[in-house]
């Protein structure tokens, strides 16, 4: 896969991502993200990830909205990212599918 160059890429963001990449387990992830993100931000990230997973599985907007209390705007945004975004959702969705099939 070709390296991705973000419009936000720079030394400060590289430093943040290097720190995230140094996390060793789920417990460390919880500790870091609880410090760096608000509760609302953490819940929004979790909701977007569930929306992406279920869109990928073919679930309808209505079913996703009911199940996760997600707005159609959020679902649409995630869907646009799946279709036309940087490929981050797709990368992780495919990686997890591969891991599950092993």
Topology, element by element:
Layout: H1 11-21, H2 26-36, H3 39-56, H4 61-68, H5 72-84, H6 88-101
Overview of the structural elements:
With 102 residues, the protein is mainly α. The chain contains six helices and no strands. The chain is globular. The two termini are 21 Å apart. The model has no long low-confidence stretch (mean pLDDT 96).
Spatial extent as radius of gyration? 15 Å
SS-derived structural category: mainly alpha
Question: Taking all residues together, what is the mean pLDDT?
Answer: 96
Main sheet: strands, sense, barrel: none
Quick one: how many beta strands?
0
Shape: globular
Q: How much strand content do the residues show?
A: under 5%
Order of helices and strands: HHHHHH
**CA distance, first residue to last residue:** 21 Å
Name its key features.
102 residues; mainly alpha; 6 helices; 74% helix; 0% strand
Quick structural overview:
The protein is an all-alpha fold and 102 residues long. Helix content is 74%, strand content 0%.
């Amino acid at each position: 896969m070709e390296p991705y160059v973000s419009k936000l890429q720079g030394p400060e963001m590289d430093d943040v991502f290097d720190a995230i990449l140094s996390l060793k387990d789920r417990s460390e992830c919880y500790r870091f993200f609880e410090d760096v993100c608000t509760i609302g931000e953490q819940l929004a990230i979790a909701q977007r990830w569930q929306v992406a997973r279920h869109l990928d599985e073919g679930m309808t907007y209505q079913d996703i909205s009911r199940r996760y209390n997600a707005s159609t705007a959020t679902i649409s945004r995630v869907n646009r990212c799946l279709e036309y975004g940087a490929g981050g959702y797709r990368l992780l969705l495919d990686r997890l599918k591969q891991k599950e099939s092993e």
